[in-house]
Amino acid sequence: MDIIEIIEKKRDGFELNREEIHYFIKNYVDNFIPDYQASALLMAIYLRGMSKKEIGILTDEMRVSGEVWDLSMIPGLKLDKHSTGGVGDKVSLVLGPMIASCGGKLAKMSGRGLGHTGGTLDKLESIPGLDIHETYEEFKNQINTVGMAIIGQDTEIDPADKKLYALRDVTGTVSCIPLIASSIMSKKLASGADCILLDVKYGSGAFMKTIEDAKNLAQTMVDIGKELNKDVKAEITDMDQPLGFAVGNNLEIKEVINTLKGNGPKDLIELCLESGAIMLQQGKIFDNEIDAKNALIENIKNGKAFDKFKEFIKAQKGDVSYIENPEKFPVAKNVIEIHSPKTGFVNKINALAIGKGSMELGGGREKIEDEIDMSAGIILNKKIGDSVKEGELLATLYTNKEEYSHVEKNVLEAFEIDDKFDESNISKKISIN
Q: Would the pTM of this model clear 0.90, i.e. be above it?
């Protein structure tokens, strides 16, 4: 077999078989196929697309390119949840303890933030001492005893994705649905979960800008699950405004704490309840949405979800005193208030502008090697649909940087305030099974 023949076959629009896809993945991971030939094949896939069968095979070959973790010795179905990324998205940190407090088992590998999107691992590491690195045995033991674990991707898992993602980033092939879907799903499937819930975001603060693109990606990943006999469901949610009020690492941890104590933002808790109900049904813990939601709500009220969060933080060596006393988290030295220039209703909040603003204040990284200021970020005081008076507080910026005037301007401009509220701006949610 010859890589040139494979490139030419896909270039001409034909379907690749398992033998050809296996040849490409194995030899690229083993460094027998150079980047320039791999780039040619990626571009052919970008231009010609892939069938459901091809995408399923590609995902499976990437999945087995490194270690595949087996969690079958842990009783019950193991659950995983993945978001395609957004601004203020701290759902996993709220949802995990809620699920675990109801008897679910969350087995999750997460990523770091880059650009305007935040990363679950960065948020966790704003808690002093917390360790996101665990061995296979530690991961299994924690899921079995605590009911949840959230760790970084092991370097031995899915090396094909690591190499291909880096190549896509420099060859203009990132925004290719078959390659996005296989990248996400190969990692999820290699980490051992039985059931996966995908939250595919769309809007100004998401990678997928339109609901049509989000549907396409979600359906493709659900189809991969069907091809590989896994229970995969997807929900499509909007990211036209940040999720919750807090954007920035320890600011979001504080919001997670408030939410698990029953004082969270409406949009965040509603999404967690909806997602949690789906996952508890996937895990065969409840057989209907109403009972699942009621159990999640009860465990917020009775404190079991918050206690599970503390148990999870302690298991991963985090200092639980920060969870019990959030005022211990450091606060940035510069606190800047943004006030409304007019009276009216908030019709839009540009999530991309808010996410970039948090990054520029120090709360995110533009390049993978950039360091993050865990105390930097933005707290919103208003959300879409809220009324606002002239001079009223819209948002507060937190930074240790001395130059932030451009962020002030951009955050203020992110709010669109009109005389009337346009109900077409109300968020939409779609489920795909």
A: yes
